[in-house]
Specification:
Layout lengths: L2 H4 L3 E4 H18 L10 H15 L4 E4 L10
Parallel strand pairs: 1-2
Helix pairs in contact: 2-3
């Protein structure tokens, strides 16, 4: 087995990651009612997504941007 085939990144879709983050945030809100209603807004979701993709899983995930509003128009 060569070095290149020994390591593969997991493919993730941004839309599914965002959906999962929103579910996690909803769970955190239900467990800790002291959070402000708007604490986990869209900016927080996007920021956490960038943190996960850019730092936590940068070597583990290959992320496909599949959200139409985020894709560059050609």
């Amino acid at each position: 087995m060569n070095e290149q085939s020994a390591y593969c990144k997991e493919i993730k879709r941004t839309s599914l990651l965002v959906e999962q983050i929103k579910k996690e945030f909803a769970q955190w809100k239900s467990e800790e009612p002291d959070f402000d209603e708007d604490f986990f807004d869209e900016d927080a979701v996007e920021s956490y997504l960038q943190y996960l993709v850019g730092y936590v899983h940068k070597d583990d995930w290959y992320v496909i941007e599949d959200r139409p509003e985020k894709q560059k128009k050609q």
